[in-house]
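Appendix B, Record 12. Input sequence as logged:
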Amino acid sequence: MIAVIGDIHGCYHTLKHLVDKLRNKYADIPLYCVGDLVDRGNFSLEVVEFVKSERIIFTLGNHDLMFYFSMQEQNFEAHTNWLYNGGDTTLKSYLNSMNKIDEHLKFIFNAPIFLNHADCFISHAGISKSYKYSLPEEILKNLDIVKEILKKDLLDRNSILWCRGELLNIGKLQVVGHTHRKEIFHDLNTNTLYIDTTAFGMNKLSAAIIDNNKVVEVIEEKTYKDDSEGRWANY
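Logged structural output:
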């Protein structure tokens, strides 16, 4: 049994209170996250520090990747795009702790693009149906090949970090974020659980308790005002 947390997006206080709820009810449960630790919310630095200290295992999100490329590659177009999509709040959170950036970027970039846990398959956006004929037929038995193929396409709109279209049914529960919703949603056709409940948009941060490919419970925390004031509040 594990807990999988949705997109955090710099909502530190909301995350901390959600984790407290999880620990109080499921004391020793392993904690996972579908990525997008940073951007849009006001406390990206604090979120990354908290995720590290609590040993929350996460998959790489598209915003995490944008943060990395913008700071490491020094590409003007990439940097402008990142700032426009919420990177401005991330940069602001690091202004008084610039010495933390390199450490955090390395930590983020070392995150896997997916996790095939015994209880479910976790990634940021899921495996797109567009890969139906390019991946091995038995995906879960050929994950090294699958990883190699998917890593080549990380910037593609149908990639495991960016896809908003229909996903493949891989024969196992896929748990993903990325696509904003008001409530957790289980697509039975593709056996996909969408758990990004738009914390940065002043809705809530959600965690699904999953055991053997079944949702046992959903635990939620309403977004704290300080976490996401400003232009993203009513997204």
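DSSP finds six helices and ten strands in the chain.
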